[in-house]
Design a protein that fits this description.
Length: about 110
C-alpha cells in the first residue's frame, strides 16, 4: 500500500491577475510566477497554486497528494478502483497525474521525480 499525504491545493480562475490580486490583498498571500497561466501561492498555511489555463483546469479546487514513487501511486489508485483522468505528465518541478475516486472526487498525485 502506498501512503500519501495532502501536500498542495490548486484553484482554477478565469482571471489570474484578479484572483492573485484578491488573495494578496485579502489574505496577504505571496506568489511565485510560473508563466502566464500559473501562480504558486505561499503564506496560506498549505502550499498551493492558481491555474489560469482552462485546458488544464479539471474539477477544481484540486487536492494534490505527494508520492515518492509516482508509478507505484498510480498503480495503487488503479488497484483500488480509481479512474485516471490525466495520465502522468511533467511540469516545472516534477510530474503528476490526476484521478477520480469511485465517489466522484478528482485528486492529483505529484512527485519530484
Amino acid at each position: 500500500m502506498t501512503h500519501l499525504k495532502i501536500d498542495y491545493v490548486e484553484f482554477a480562475t478565469k482571471d489570474l491577475p484578479a484572483t492573485q490580486a484578491f488573495l494578496a490583498k485579502a489574505f496577504a498571500w505571496t506568489f511565485t510566477d510560473y508563466g502566464p497561466d500559473y501562480q504558486a501561492f505561499a503564506n496560506a498555511g498549505l502550499d498551493g497554486g492558481i491555474q489560469g489555463d482552462p485546458d488544464h483546469a479539471g474539477a477544481l479546487p484540486l487536492v494534490i497528494l505527494k508520492a515518492d514513487d509516482l508509478e507505484a501511486a498510480e498503480a495503487s489508485v488503479k488497484a483500488a478502483g480509481g479512474t485516471i483522468t490525466h495520465p502522468i505528465f511533467s511540469f516545472p518541478g516534477g510530474r503528476r497525474f490526476h484521478f477520480r475516486e469511485p465517489g466522484g472526487n478528482e485528486l492529483g498525485v505529484w512527485s519530484e521525480k
